[in-house]
Fold each of these.
Amino acid sequence: MGQGDDGSPGLGPMVVEDKKEKEPFKPIRKSAFMNYKKCPKKFWFSYFIHGEDYWNYNESTSKNEAAAKGDIFHAEVDGFYGQIDYELLYELTNTTKVIKYMRDKFSYSDTYDTEKTEMDEWFDWYCETEAKRFFFFKEKYPKSEFLEFFPPKETEWQVTMKDDIDRTGHIDRIDYLPNEKAYAIVEYKTGKSYDPKRPNNLSSLRAECGFYAIICNEMKLLDHPVHYWILYNPRLKIYHVERFPAATMRAVNNAYKGLVQKVKEAGDFPRKITPLCMWCDYRRECFHGLPGEPKKYIIPRTLGKTDDTERQED
Ligand code: SF4
């Protein structure tokens, strides 16, 4: 404000300085990126309209039984590897004993003695799968290398890459594949829809893992490149390992650049109406308009049903 000669506030010309800095763009999480690929409008709601919930999305996933089971599975598996005594495990020679040793590390077995639940079966399958991996490494490598290669390289790993708009996310796990001298992004999925035998789902899973592989490789976060991705789906009992097709990496990078441009230019984020709208957090606003706005959308007459609820995760 201008000042009078006596130092009091005067009426002279005022220089109004706009000190309000432009808010930087929020980093784009992997799950937000996947939202964008599935439905640009869903990304728009989460990024621009419900920005206050953007970082808390994972905390509110237990809205139904399927999502709650997914959360429990993730939490249990995250704690699993930290409880294993690898020297002791290495000495076990019998498959049943290895599975039992692993199975006892999970706390989710309250009902196991009386009634085996679906989740008990998930953990049974997980331990059987890890036991196969255990014997593969044990038979192929000397003890010192087993101890180096069998445990995951990282679990629950937060990664961020500087970019026009930063990319970020949580990787469930990183494994080293010594034969290939490369790392693999490991994803845990518990929904029926995460089935790599279905082509659409396969390309979506590749893109999710590819998002992380690009961060690891471009930032050189590991001592070898990430060339593979691995899926564990205990509900479908699927353990899937695959090398990333080069086309996936190109497609993910191009889609990311397109998203960044749209965010910066406040471009159009159209709706993509599919049966998954039934489970979308933003369906009310999407079909009826934001509060205070005139209704501008048509409610689709039929949305059919999918066989599962998708868990949102990084
Ligand atoms: S309700 Fe459907 S169209 Fe609307 S934002 Fe959600 S997924 Fe997209």
Amino acid sequence: MREQFGAFTASELYCPKCKKSQPVREKLILPLPTGELYQFLCIQCGASLGERTVSSPSLRRQAPPRATRSNAVHRRVIH
Ligand SMILES: [Zn+2]
């Protein structure tokens, strides 16, 4: 059994409410420009046991490219 550092996924975490290790499920709580923020929730009581940020290069399926029309602000210096 090999431990993979850098690809950390928690399948079980200690839950202070349940007072024992519990399986957790990941829940996307916040899409970031650089990745996604996931929260580990105890599947038993739903307590938040931790969180992690996932940097995904293939994030564009979540965030479609916006039209640059609104960004194309014509700056005019009017005297
Ligand atoms: Zn729990």
Amino acid sequence: MIRVSGKTKHACGIFGKVILTILISALSIFAIVLATYKPVYSVYMDGEFKGYVTSKNKVQGDIEEYLQEGDSDRVGYILLNSRPEYEFDLVKKDVETKDDDVLALVKDSCDIYYRVYAINVNDKDVCLEETLEDAQAIVDKVNAAQKSYTKKAKVMISEKFEKEYDAVADITVAANDIIKPIKKENEAIVKKVQTYAAAKTVPQEILDALKSQSADLKFGLPVTSYVITSRYGWRRSGYHTGCDYAAPMGTPIHAVEDGIVTCAEWKGNYGYLVKVQHAGGFETYYAHCSRFAVSVGDSVKKGDVVAYVGSTGNSTGPHCHLEIRYNGATIDPETLASGSNNA
Ligand SMILES: [Zn+2]
């Protein structure tokens, strides 16, 4: 049996009391602290104190979610420029914590890149659309417009990420803006081809040979059924260099003699004009045509269709203005042209 002396008992009693007192004091201080203070996190961004938050996990979770999802589905990605740092702290209970404010600050510091769709014309971005559907609609409109063009533009869509951008407001306007220069370019091509065609000439030696040929010409009539609406010579409107044979629009116009076509193009007041060079220095003009049936250099026989009646140029109604020239000077067609078209 162990015997404990009275002294030892006493010492133990004092020791226990001291421990108890310390424990009670510590608990009291803890209770006072708990009653007066609360645990928080101090938030720092770029070393600068930004405020207190209650839950580090909640704030971090919100930030991560924002970085992943963004505020809208147009957000492509977000770059976070400064990451918040947290320090555990005890502050008085009445100190405000601002969990949402920290999220707002983080959002402000971010670079947001939005997903947009660039319309690409011949490898160059020309405009941006917010949705793929609208971008596709523009491309479809442009492709429909350029369907008949000789020189088509390559129109494509590419996905882009932009911090700031101007999106197209009106699909039709955007499509028209894209098609305008393509259309212009194609019109220039058509014009070039036309100019080239018009530049086609009959070699001079052939014309000279034809002109010097002695010929017994019997001029026919340009249209089979007609009404003469204006004769050769002085008219109220001035000197009429030919004779007007009115006939319905599209009526075939026949060459009045054999010859070579020297002109089939637009000529100011004459509108669409066909000129035929005949033997012996004679030339005939068929003016105001609606369309041509021959081209420059074609050899025609008397009666061949060279064009169709129209009302192009300086004309008040469908008719064929026939002009006959001898070495450049006009002659009254009615004194020469007559009878059947077929010699
Ligand atoms: Zn006339």
